[in-house]
Amino acid sequence: MLAFKKMAPVLLVCFVSSIALADDITQSVSQSDDFKKHQSAFAKAAKKLIDDGTCKVSDFEYVGGFVKSMNHKNKPVYFTYCGGMTIPNRLYLNVSTGEVFR
């Protein structure tokens, strides 16, 4: 029990940090097209892209989140840029499947 009492503040800090990061990620994609409809998909994809090192929170803040793709008009596909606003840095997200592709 003593060991848990010593670790509890550390666990609390980690938990609060995770919540803060999740809030930062959600905020960074909050200007996405159709945000209210696809908020969960945008936040989940952004977190995955940040966690795997593909993107930074600042990439989403700069772009404003995800933009509806006109190249995929009939599909629920949105795009963003990570690492600069060039075509090779464009990433697409299918909000129905969660698939991210170039």
- Name the average pLDDT: 86
Any idea what the radius of gyration is?
16 Å
| Order of H and E elements | HHHEEEE
Widest β-sheet, arrangement of strands: 1-2-3-4
Task: Give the N-terminus to C-terminus distance in angstroms.
Answer: 50 Å
**Share of residues in helices:** 40-55%
The major pleated sheet works out as: 4 strands, antiparallel
- What's the number of extended β-strand segments? 4
Low-confidence stretches: 7-17
Overall shape: it is: globular
Tell me the fraction of residues in β-strands, as a range.
5-15%
Overall description:
With 102 residues, the protein is of the alpha+beta class. It has helices at 2-28, 35-51, 57-63; strands at residues 67-68, 77-81, 90-94, 100-101. α1 runs parallel beside α3 (57-63).
List the helices and strands and how they pair.
Elements: H1 2-28, H2 35-51, H3 57-63, E1 67-68, E2 77-81, E3 90-94, E4 100-101
Antiparallel strand pairs: 1-2, 2-3, 3-4
Helix pairs in contact: 1-3
Produce a short descriptive summary.
The chain has 102 residues and is of the alpha+beta class. 50% of the residues lie in helices and 14% in strands. Keywords: Signal.
